[in-house]
Amino acid sequence: MAKIVVDVMLKPEILDPQGKAVAAALPRLGFNFAKDVRQGKRFEIEVDGDPTPAQLADVEKAAEKLLSNPVIENFTVRVEK
Prior knowledge:
With 81 residues, this protein is of the alpha+beta class. The protein is built from two helices and three strands. It is elongated.
């Protein structure tokens, strides 16, 4: 069994208020390592066996049409074993 992972992030030019809120909260909690924070979404899709090129193409289409908003978000698709 393999896992296809789709990571969705706001495009860099889009404001990320949730990421800004987390970035502001980190130092208040004593964490001073972050220069900036961007918040995103992760989808894990399990398939039997190794994913085929056709399955990966279908996941790309699903990411474009359902899992992301291509106007304001970018996505990446990868296989995780």
